[in-house]
């Protein structure tokens, strides 16, 4: 007759719990009842490592805290990567969401683009008689 659940037996010579579902008797924190931790181990004995803890990390070439491009999955922070994927220009650390960039002067000089929360630019104009003045860091201001 097979029991409905694993039989728990204490080995009195070693004080170890004998059960068929523990995947690492050398680590007391690794058991079928443990929560998964971000540590490179299969803490909950389900055959997967750090499976519920990974997040997307995006390359952040200009190291401004905003990334772009294809994501890497990891539960640990990855140097040179960001959890934010909305960098409009990953070659310029000054161009982050909300930044204005002057468009080349076509007509009146008040054309600009604004880096949006989605990582894309939207076209806009300076209000009134203001013109977009390029800044040394590659952004622009209406003046």
Strand order of the largest sheet: 4-3-5
Compute the separation of the termini in Å: 85 Å
Order of helices and strands: EEEEEEEEEE
- DSSP summary, beta strand count: 10
Provide key terms for this protein.
single chain, 143 residues, mainly beta, 3-stranded antiparallel sheet, disordered N terminus
Description:
The protein is an all-beta fold and 143 residues long. The chain contains no helices and 10 strands. The strands form 4 sheets. A 3-stranded antiparallel beta sheet has the order 4-3-5, with no helix packed on it. A 3-stranded antiparallel beta sheet has the order 6-7-8, with no helix packed on it. A two-stranded antiparallel sheet has the order 1-2. Strand 1 and strand 2 form a beta hairpin. It is rod-shaped, with a radius of gyration of 27 Å.
Can you describe this structure in just a few lines?
The chain has 143 residues and is mostly beta strands.
Topology:
Blueprint lengths: L8 E3 L4 E3 L36 E5 L12 E3 L6 E2 L17 E3 L8 E5 L5 E5 L6 E3 L5 E3 L1
Antiparallel strand pairs: 1-2, 3-4, 3-5, 6-7, 7-8, 9-10
